[in-house]
Structures are given as C-alpha cells and as structure tokens.
Fold this sequence. Notes:
This protein is α/β, with parallel strands linked by helices. Helix content is about 30%, strand content about 25%. It has helices at about 45-50, 90-95, 100, 110-120, 140-150, 170-185, 195-200, 215-220, 225-230, and strands spanning about 5-15, 15-25, 30-35, 60-65, 75, 155-160, 185-190, 205, 210-215, 235, 240-245, 255-260. The longest helix is centred in the middle third of the chain and has 16 residues, at about 170-185.
Amino acid sequence: MSDAVTGEKVVLSYPSRTAVAESTFSIPSGKVTVVIGPNGSGKSTLLSAIAGLITPTSGTLDVAARNDDARRISYVMQATKVNDALPVTVREVVTMGRYTTAGRYGRLDDDDRSAVAEAMQRTGIVDLGDRHLNQLSGGQRQRVFVAQGLAQDHDLLLLDEPLTGIDLPTAQAIDAVIHDELHRGCTVILTTHDLSEARVADHVVLLAGRVVAAGPPEEVLTAEHLNEAYGPALLHLGDEEVFIEDHAHMNTDSHHRHRERTIHTEHDPVDLHADD
C-alpha cells in the first residue's frame, strides 16, 4: 500500500516566517498518525498543507487523496476556532459537509441525507439536531464538527487537536470514530500536544519547526528526540509519565501532566482516561 502523504524537502512558510523548515517524511495509508510538538511547532500548518490550504514554499508534498483532482479529504478544525454563535442548527452544520458534492445551492439527494444521518449517529448527536451551536457544550460542538467531517466523502480524515479540552464521553465517541475510520479503509491524521496520545498511534510525526523524526512511536518518542523537540520544556522523562511545560495547554499552575490515554487502533484498543 502506498503512503498517504509524502514530503520531500518540503518547506511551509507564511509571509513573515517559516513555519516548517525543510523536511522529508512520509505518512502511511490506512493508519492513525499523530502529529505532535510544542506550541508553535507547525502542527496546524502541516495539517493545512496536507489539506491543500497552504502551498509549500519549496519541495514537494504528495497527498494521495488529492491526486487526480479527487480531493477526498475531510479537514476538521478545532471547535474553538469556529464561531459558535452562527445562527445554524447542528443538522445544518453537519449537512455542510455535503456541499462539496451537492454544491452550496444544490439539492441534497437521498445519498446526501443518508450520509448526514449516519455521521450524526456515529458521533452521538442525533438528539441535538435542532439545537444551535451556542446552546452546546464544548464537547458537543466538537462532536458536531467531527460529524461534519464524516459526512463529507473522504479517504483521508484530518483532525486538529480533536481530544483537547473535551469531556470523557466526547473523547470516547471520537476515539470510536477513529477506530471505525480505519475499518472503513480511511487514513486518519490528527494533531495533539499530548504525548500519551502519540504513544498509542500507529505512526508519529514529531515537529519543532521542522520534522525532528517520523515513524513508529517507539522510534520517534525517544529521550533524544523529545529533548531536541521540547528542549527546556521537557521537565521530566520517566517510564510512565512525562512533564512538559507547555503554556498553551496548561491545566495546573506548574505543568501539564500526561498520563496514559488511548486512541483506538486496529491492533490494541484499551480504556481511555482523561488527563489529571
């Protein structure tokens, strides 16, 4: 099976800065890949480039789901980046996932309506269909936007920090979706700041303004690579837990404590526990 994404000496830049310096890496098809790194390391930029929203400054970024103008990519942004005061219902938000095929003013057919209903069922939001975004909790909003992504025809699902700042039931629901996506033959790429999520993925891309390492978790999340990526922010590295001084995701006054939580993969699903 060919890789879902291949980057060859790829550079991703904005007018004022380089977000990801020259990097070569690959991401396998049909697996869960976690993109991890400190705040400002280029995680969201890489995801946007894979989605086709950013063009590399140099090098090449080949994405199988974008070949031959197929564009079978679904990109789910963080719910916190979306205006939750929009005067639309949950069902309308999920239905927007079908606009890429039906057209903004096109009529939805039975397949479209079926895709919307299935996405809402998979994320457990059927009973929220007539409610507005501003009536929902953060976890509920996150489910809505994941459902919108699922409603869209896709071979590649991109999730920007889907498990950050949500309740346990929502985390479990999204975890189940990721597991189900693999069984449907899709590739999942998600960003996170949580090392325990990266440890249970199939593949990891570690960023720090460039790709420090990419490969299986046990080969990427080594003391050497983590020190290179996090530097002084890596406060403690032990057999069971890691302390990282990440000011963008602090949940105590002193440090963010990472404990075991799990993204279901095809091989080894176990219980998921929320961060302390």
